[in-house]
Structure formats: C-alpha cells, structure tokens
Specification:
The protein is of the alpha+beta class and 191 residues long. It is built from seven helices and five strands, in the order H-H-E-E-E-H-H-H-E-H-E-H. Strands 3-2-4-1-5 form a five-stranded antiparallel β-sheet. The longest helix has 15 residues.
C-alpha cells in the first residue's frame, strides 16, 4: 500500500506529491470528466430517514410493533411472522404475495391483518458528514467509517464555485505557489 494523506499518512515530500497529483486529476485533469466541474469538492454524505407527517406520502415505510417496541422494515418483519400470519398477509396481496407487492398494497394489507402495528412512512435524504479535496480521500473515509453509518454513505461531488478562499488555495497548490517545505526542527532552549 502506498502511503497517502487520504489514508492518514504523515505529510512527507512523497505524500504531498501524491496529494497534488490526485488534486490535479480530480480538479483539472482527466477526473473532471467523471463529474464535469473543475471546482470540485468531494462531500461524504450519509443517508438518513426523514419521517413524513401524517397525510404525506413517503417513498418507504417502517413498521413499529408496540408489543416489543421494535422498528423494522416490512421484509424483515414479514420473515419474523409465523406461517399463518404470512399466509393472511399474502392473501391480501393476491397473485404476488406480500413481499413482492408495492408499498401501498403492503400498507393496506398490514392495516387489514395487523391493526396493532404502526406504519410510518419516510423519505431518504442525504446529509453531509464531511468534505475532501480529492475523491480518493472521500472514498478512504467511507472505507474506514462505513460501519458507523448503517443506512449508507456516498460521495457527492459539489462545486465550490463561490468558495473563493478554497479555490484560491487549490489553484495555488496546483500552480506550485503553495508547496511542501520541510521545516527545520525548532532549536532547543538552553537550560
């Protein structure tokens, strides 16, 4: 494995050169074709559930069972049922069965067969967790931390068009105006 700042390596002439090469690739080189903006910043976003207020349709739903206080998705919940309850739900969705039915058909079947449970509709949304100069750094973060985000992570490329400080610093790095300078150790103070 090559040492890289994207994976937490120390700043050295080699890791700096690697960073500048990746920055060039992603922001002015061949990598621009993958996202079509030279002012790229790479955002890591987590997927989050946003529950819908009453009367607003969502894209998916959870089931809350007051008997055990647990919330889960319909497929998992269905697998935990005994055979008789599964058959009753399947009968409410003729020809396709409960698991293969559409969301609204599933919700109707649940209201008929299992009136004690609560169904909560939600939409998926994406919330920014952090941002990176390069795609490789965003990917490295996801590889390292995806276990902490059970609903998923993604890299979203955004434009930093009006982030003048960030763009000026990025341009200075790419032009060599900002570079790696090895610092001399601080002199030891006399006792």
């Amino acid at each position: 494995m090559t040492a890289t700042l994207a994976k937490g390596a120390d700043l050295t002439p080699e890791t700096w050169a690697d960073f500048v090469a990746r920055l060039h690739h992603d922001c002015v080189g061949e990598g621009v074709r993958e996202h079509y903006t030279a002012d790229a910043v790479f955002l890591v976003q987590k997927r989050t559930k946003v529950y819908c207020p009453e009367g607003v349709d969502g894209e998916a739903f959870d089931i809350y069972c007051p008997d055990d206080g647990e919330t889960c998705d319909a497929d998992y919940w269905y697998q935990c049922l005994d055979g008789d309850d599964q058959q009753r739900l399947d009968a409410e969705c003729p020809g396709i069965g409960f698991v293969d039915a559409g969301m609204h058909d599933q919700m109707n079947a649940l209201s008929e067969v299992c009136p004690k449970i609560d169904v909560h509709e939600f939409n998926w949304d994406w919330e920014t967790v952090n941002q990176h100069f390069t795609n490789a750094a965003a990917d490295a973060f996801i590889a390292r931390k995806k276990h902490d985000y059970r609903d998923g992570l993604r890299v979203y490329v955004d434009a930093s068009t009006y982030s003048w400080e960030l763009n000026t610093i990025k341009a200075a790095i790419l032009s060599g105006q900002i570079g790696f300078i090895k610092a001399e150790p601080a002199p030891k103070e006399a006792p």
